[in-house]
Amino acid sequence: MAEEKPEGLKQLFVYEHDASRLELFIRIVYAFVIMLVLAVYGVIADICLLIQWFVILILGRRNEGLSNFIKGYLEYFVHVIGYVYWITDDRPGLFPEKTEIYEKK
Questions:
Q1: What's the angle, vertex CA 100, arms to CA 95 and CA 105, rounded to 5?
Q2: Is residue 38 part of a domain?
Q3: Which whole-number Å values give the CA distances from 27 to 13, 16, 39, 86, in the listed order?
Q4: Across residues 56-66, what is the average pLDDT?
Q5: What is the 8-class DSSP label of residue 12?
Q6: Which sign does the torsion angle of CA 75, 49, 95, 18 carry?
């Protein structure tokens, strides 16, 4: 029995049989730019991780702003990686969009 997809949710990593040859060449440049944005975002997220470590060590709690920034980086990474790794031809936005990730139990 097939599971129903929840309303408003899109599975990110789904096999797509057809692929555009033109998109393959566009992807070379576009994915490079996405990876640059991801790298800069990642460096800033790593700095936030280090600061968060000290906040937890000193205060015994997490800073919500730092956690949200780090979470945003992880969500952006998951959002764009399907395009960068040739799983889909759906071109993601260049800059982070609001994305939420859930774990199915």
A1: 145
A2: yes
A3: 17, 16, 17, 9
A4: 96
A5: S
A6: negative
Does some domain include residue 46? yes
Give a yes or no: residue 21 inside a domain.
no
Name the band, by pLDDT with cuts 50, 70 and 90, for residue 25.
Answer: confident
User: Could you give the number of structural domains in the chain?
Assistant: 1
Residues of the domain holding 80: 32-84
Rounded Cα–Cα distance for residues 28 and 22 (Å) = 10
Kindly report, residue by residue over 9-23, the tens digit of the pLDDT: 776 666 666 767 878
> Amino acid letter at 51?
I
Characterise 102 by phi-psi region: left (phi > 0), alpha (psi -120 to 50), beta (else): beta
